[in-house]
Amino acid sequence: VQLVESGGGSVQSGGSLRLSCATSGYTYGSGTIAWFRQTPGSEREGVASIYTGTGKTYYNDSVQGRFTISQDSGAHTVYLQMNNLKPEDAAMYYCAADANGGYWKSPRTFKSWGQGTQVTVS
Asked: Tens digit of pLDDT for each residue in 92-117?
């Protein structure tokens, strides 16, 4: 499984960005794909996840109501729409796949990771 993130950038507080996670070698219809974020010196934090079988989504409380995770299995892509961005949302954002059945917010649950895309909010 290969994951490639894109869509990061620099925005002002209150702005929006849409991140994309292009997947290859991943079978949609089972399993979970998640977005994580990390700032220097901090642990990787689960932001949102989607179960690709049913489309059920989960969110970190800090982004609930502002971020939306979605999938386009035909395009082999998972998206993270981020609205009303705040300075505390600034981080490197990663997508992750190949979950081992553990809790989605734990980085140890996922085996495959992308290289990340940087989000800056001023």
From this structure: 999 999 888 899 999 999 999 999 99
